[in-house]
Amino acid sequence: MNNILENLNPEQLSAITHESGPLLIVAGAGTGKTTVITRRIAWLIMEQGIKPDDILALTFTNKAAAEMEERVDKLLPYGYVDLWVSTFHTFCQRVLEAHALDIGLPNDIELLDETGQWLLVRENFNKFDLDYYRPGNNPTKFIRVLLSHFSKLKDEEIAPEKYLEYAEGLQLDSDMPALGGSALGGEASGGKSKRYKKQDTNKIQETISNDEIKRIVEVANAYHTYQQLLLDNDKMDFGDLINYVLKLFRERPNILKKYQQQFKYILVDEFQDTNWAQYDLVKMLAHPANNLTVVADDDQSIYRFRGASMSNVIQFSREFKDAAKVALVRNYRSGQQILDLSYNFIQLNNPNRLEGSAEFSINKKLLGEAKELAQIEHLHCQSGSDEARIVAETILALKKSDKAATWNDFAILVRANSQAQEFEQALHAAGIPHRNSSAAGLYKTRIVADILAFFDALVDYHEGRAIFRLLNLPWLDIAMEDIIKMTHWADRKRISLYSVLLQPQVAGVANEVSLTGLARLRSALEEAQAALNKGQPTEILHKWLLDKGNYVDHLKTLPEADSLEQFRNLRAFWEHLLVIEKGLGDCRVKDVLAVIKQELQSGDEGDLPPDLESGPEMVKLMTVHSAKGLEFTYVFVTNLVDRRFPTIERRDAISIPDALVKEIVPTGDAHLEEERRLFYVAMTRAKRGLFLTSAENYGGVTKKKLSRFLVELNQTTPAFKTNVAPLVVRPSDFFVKQTRLLKHNFVLPIPSRFSFTQLRIYAEDPLAYKLQFIYKVPTLGKDVFSYGSTIHATLQKFFHLLQQRTGSVQTDLFGTPSNSPLVRGREQTTPPYQGGEGGGFLPVSLGELMEIYEASWIDDWYNDENSKKKMRAQGRDRLKQFYEHLVAAGAVPDIKALERPFNVRIGAYTIAGRIDRIDQLADGSVRIVDYKTGKLKHKLEPNDKKQLLIYQIVVEEVFREKVSELAYYYIDAENIKSGENQISFLGSLAEKQETKAWVVEQIKGIESGNFPINDEAPFPSPEVEYLRDLVEIGVL
What we know:
Blueprint lengths: L1 H4 L4 H7 L6 E5 L5 H14 L8 E5 L2 H14 L8 E4 H12 L10 E2 L2 H10 L19 H13 L4 H13 L25 H4 L8 H23 L2 E2 L1 H14 L1 H10 L2 E4 L7 H11 L5 E5 L14 H9 L4 E5 L1 E6 H11 L20 E4 L4 E9 H18 L8 E5 L6 H9 L4 E3 L9 H14 L4 H8 L8 H14 L3 H6 L9 H19 L6 H12 L2 H4 L5 H25 L4 H13 L17 E5 H4 L4 E6 L32 H14 L2 E12 L10 H9 L36 E2 L1 H9 L1 H9 L8 H23 L16 E2 L2 E2 L5 E2 L6 E2 L3 H11 L8 H25 L5 E12 L2 E12 L5 E7 L9 H16 L5 E8 L11 E4 L3 H19 L14 H11 L4
Parallel strand pairs: 1-7, 1-8, 2-3, 2-6, 4-5, 6-7, 9-10, 11-16, 12-14, 12-15, 13-14, 15-16, 17-23, 24-25
Antiparallel strand pairs: 18-19, 20-21, 22-23, 23-24, 25-26
C-alpha cells in the first residue's frame, strides 16, 4: 500500500482512495491524471479486495489503454488476470463476441474499418438512390462524406428508422409527393410509420424548402440502405459496436444485469471526449451502485468534430448530484508563467465551463510545481517563410544554450496539416532532424508514391510519369543526364518513355552504371507484368521490394532512424493493401489502383502510422490535435493570424438535423470556444519555453491581422506583449540546402512487454526478431499459419460451445434451461452423443463441429487451389478423428478456461500471452493444454518445453492454481483416435527457474540492441537472407 499511496499530493490521494459512489476528477493539464487512475485501480485491488475482472477502465486509444495496463502491472506485485482495461470499441467488441447471437447477429460478424466501409458502399453503389450526392463526373465522390455522417448519427444513437421517420414527417408536412423508390412509408421501420409531429419538425425552422427536404430524404434512405448492406453481409462498423451493445443491454436485461454485477467499479479516462452513445453505455453499466469514476478536463475538449460531446462533463455533475468532486490543480509540467497565461485566457469561455458555471463550486487554477522561470515570447515575421526560418533559428539557438536539451524536447504545432510545409522545408534546410507527423498522408510519402508509380507502370507501361519516377529511384543509380537523354528522345520520336527504357542506347545512354540500373528496372517490370493477371498485388509488391527491386537495399543509404520511418510507412501501406484485397476478393493490381485513386479523388490520402513518441531524436512537427497528451520542453505555436488560428467555422458537409440532435449544445459561439480550448491545449504542452509565432503575409495580397487569441492573451494577462514590428531575417550559414538529413543518434524502440513467440524468434535468430518486431518488415504469409489459425479458432469455438452446453442445469441469461433443445437461438438438428460418465452426453454434434470449421476457415496464402483443397480436407479428417476420440473417451473435459489472456512479471519484465485451454481435474488441480498443428514430437527437448513452462509459472504464480499436467495436443497427428497425439509432462522447480533465467537473458539481449545474424539457424527467413549483407556491413 505504501508504494501505491506514496509521493501523492492531497488531491490525488483523495481521488485515489474514494471508496464508493460517483466521482468526478477534474484533471488539469500536467496534473498526473494517469497516475491517479492507475493507482486507484491498484488501490481498489490491493486495499479494497476488488478482483481485477470486477473493474472496468475505459479510454479512447489503444496506446492509452496499453500505458494504463503497463502502469497497473508495475504497481501490482504478481501481475493480474482479466483486468478490463480497453477502449470503448474493444470493450464492446468483447461483449458482442460473447453475446452477438442474443440479438440476432452472427458470432463471426466482421468489423469494417473506414476502408472496408468505403469498399462495401462502392461495390454496392447502384443500390443507393442518390441524386444530390452523386455528381456525374465523379459518382463516388461523396461516399466518405456520407459514411462520416452515418458515423456521427451512430454517435448520437440515431437509428436509420428514426432518421426515416423524421424525413417522412418533413415530407408529409410539405406539399411534396412521396418520392419513388424511397424507404419511407413505414416498411423500413417495421410497418406503420411513427410520424413526427408538426411541432417536432418545426424545431429546426418554420419552413424548409422542398429541395432541402428532398436532400434529407435522400440521406435518410442512404443511411437505411447502408445499414441494410451491413446486415446482409454480416458486417458492422465501429459505430455499430456501441449501438449493438446498447441494443443488447436494453433488449436482454439479464445480460445487462450480469455485467452490472460484474463491474463493481468503472473508470473512464478523457471523459470530456465521450459521445452521447458512450455516455449512455457508461451510465447503464454503472447502475445501480454508480461506483463510477470519470476523469475529465472540460478545457481540453477538442474533438467535437469526431462526435465528442463536451456537455457530458456538465451533464454528469447534474445527473449525479451526489458525486464527489476532486480537482487536480498541482501541475508537474509547466512553469507558472505558462499556467497563468493559459488559465487567464481560457476563462473567456465562461460560463460554458465547469469552473465558470454558477451551478458548480470548483477551482481549476493550476499551481506549478516546477520552480524555474518559463520563457514566453511572441515572434512576429514578415512572411510565412521568414516565420519558418525564425523558428528553425530559435530551435538551433536553444539547443546550443541548453546543453541538456535533445531534439525530442522541441515541438512545432500547426492548426492544420497544410500549414506544415514551410516549417518542414526550413528544418530540412537547417539540417535539423525532424518528423512531420502532420504530413499530407500515407499515399504522399516517398516509398508509397514509388510503389504506386510501380503499380501504375505495370497496369499501363505507357504512363510516362510513372516510368520517370521509377527512373529516378536512387538505388538504381541512373544518372540524371541519362534520364534527360531518354525523355528528350521519347519526346522527339513521339514514343513512350517505356519504349526508350527497352533500348536506352538509341537515346545515347552509354554509362555502364546507368545501363545496369536500367536493366534492373526492365527486369523487375517484365517479371511483375508476367504475374500481373495471376498474382495478388501484395505478392507482386513483395517480390519487387525484396527479390528484384532492391528497394530495401536502398535503405542502407539512409540513417537508421530514417530507415525505420520508411519501414513504418511501408508497413502501414502493406496492411492497407491487405484490407483492400480482402474487401475485393480475388483482385489484381489494376483493381487496387482503382480503389486508391477513388480514395484520392474523395480527398483521402491514407492514414500515416501514428507513432509519435518512439523512434529517434527528432523535432516533432504536428497538429495541435495530435499533440494532446504529449509534453515538450519548448513549444512553438505557429500561424497565429486571423482565419488560421482560430479557423473560420467549417460545418459538417452533412449536418445532423437539429431536431434529431440529443447533445445539449451550450449557448454562445461553440466553434470559437472549441478553438480556444485547442489553443489552451497547445500552450499547456510547453514546460519551459512557449513561443507564439505569426507573420504579416502568407502569400496573399492582404496583410494578415494578428490572431484574436494573441489580443486576448494581452487583455487577460497584460504582462504578455505582442510584437507588431516584423523580425529581420538575416542570411545564415546553416540555411544551406542539404541533400540528406544529418545523421543523428538513434535508439531502437524496444517493446515494453514480450510474448513467448517473440523470445523464441530472438533466441533462434536475433536479426529475424529485429526485422519482424522492431523494423516490422512486411512479410508474405504462409499456408501453415492460415491452417494453424483455422484449427485453433475451430477448437476454441467448439470447446466454448461445449462449455456452455455441459454446465449444470440452470437458467441462462434468457431464463431458458441450459439443457433446452434450443441453444443460443438455433435448433440442435444432430442427435448428441449419449453416454459417458454419469449418464452425460456430448451436446455438440460432429456436424456442428464441421460447421464451425468451415466458418473459421482462413483462405489465405495457399500456393494453389489443389494444396488448399488438400489442407482443407486434412483439417476435416483430423477434426473428425478428434471428435470420435472425444466420444470414445466417454467424458467431456471440465474446462476451466479457454483462450485465457495473462500478464506475468518475470524479474523486471512483463510477459503477455494467451493459454489455449485449462482443464479442471478431479483432485482440484488443473491441466494446461496447448494445441499444435505441426508434426508430433515423441520426445520433448528442453527448448520445446519452454512455452508450457511459462504457462505453468503463470497459472501457479498469478492464477494461484495447482498444476499437475502440461500437455501439447497435436491435432494433425494421424493417430488421434488412439489418444497418442498428446505428450505430457510437468515442470520441475529447476526447469521453471531455468525458464525464468532464459526469459530474462533474451530480453536483456533485446534491450542491448544487439541483433547478430545466426549463421546456424536451420531455416533463416527470406528477409534475413536478403538483408544479410546490410547487417554484415553494419547498416542494419
